[in-house]
Request: fold
Amino acid sequence: MILSRRSLVLGAAATLAGCDRLAKNEAVRDALFSAENFHKWAQRGLMARDALAREFRPDQISPFFRPNGTANPNTPEYKALWRNGFADWRLHVSGLVGQPLSLSLAQLHALPHREQITRHDCVEGWSAIGKWRGVPLKPILDAARLRDGARYIVFHCADDMGGGRGYYESIDLVDAFHPQTILAFALNDEPLRVANGAPLRLRVERQLGYKQAKYLMKIEAVASLEGIGGGKGGYWEDRAGYDWYAGI
Amino acid sequence: MERALPQRKTVLRHRLPVRLWHWLNALLLYVLFTSGLGIFNAHPRLYWGQYGANYDHAWLGLERFGSWITLPAHYDLAMSRHWHLSAAPIFAFALLFYMLWSLFGGHLGRDLAFRRGELAPRHVWQDIRDHARLRFPAGEAALRYNVLQKASYIAVIFVALPLMILTGLAMSPGMNAAWPWLVDLFGGRQSARSIHFIAAFALAAFFLVHMLMVLLAGPLNEIRSMISGRYRVPEARR
Reply:
């Protein structure tokens, strides 16, 4: 053999280190990060604006829906809300809206619901199928009357992943008005457990798991994502460089 | 004892599109494989069916791949995904163009299609025996792909590589809404992920055999023919 395994391994490691150095170059980094725009453009071009994510039969539901990320926000504020059965919890809708809202859990329960059995696709690779019930986001945004210039909906959460910076996520209006985009308060016919995001979480079924913000506290309509958190549109986008468009 | 080599015939063995696509693929497969292992490391378990997470039955559970073979050379899911998802569309469109060129440019009919009698068991068996004895074709025969080469190139271009792209897309929640039939075709997102992983290692195995053949068949002549296209025809054995 001309190449020994050792030299192959060293060669591979050296080439990979070379790729890492390359990725530190501003232009290469920009190119790598801009692939997200291609995927968003291609997927939005291929699908109808309201194309639905696959919905499953009840017998296809995962035996156990794996919670991920924060299992309990554990802040004094959240604990107080939980102790009281979330009776004092309010969902605030603000920002570029004509009519700011403050909704209680009871008010959300009184609105028309949607039920969907969908697959949760984690960016890490695993999937879980669960049955969600909640209020579609559209009527809430309609009631709040988005003002001209509103381009993104930002979801602010009660947890901070232990890092001191609040979890948040954002989607654009195409996904915000999608029929399967709901604010879910029940999973598999039971009130949402703390580990799965009680009392209310987002479901954006055409995107990866980290978009499905748990422990919702405030919804904000904005013209730009700059100035919110680290400016990249979400907790993981800011912290770890995840794609904002999480459709792939 | 050395004796003067007779002047041998040099021919144009590989045309430009073959050479360009070959080297582009070498680069992209390297990036895709190593960044793919980096992505796999985020959840190194594989399942069959529509769903699969830690509490479900995995048919394969591995330790994380070492940093010597992942891109980046440390655990960074976001960067692995940036590399993977940047390289994938280039790879997919290059394959599409190469397939069209092969089909309409004559490469498929002229170089890859099996000739009459080539698939006869006797002929295939003879080719296997020649490979096993490392008897490589010479003279005119060296200018054509042999039957095992044709079979493996066809399998790679028209089966394995498209399978990589389609199973990759089947894992995307956006494509799940755009092309629901694609996920069904593979029996669910986790099945698609498993097939993606198996096909990646099948391609890695092809790569290793491919390299071995280049080394055994005369690396300088073979590599030169993939760079400049010029190939020195080996003398027929006596």
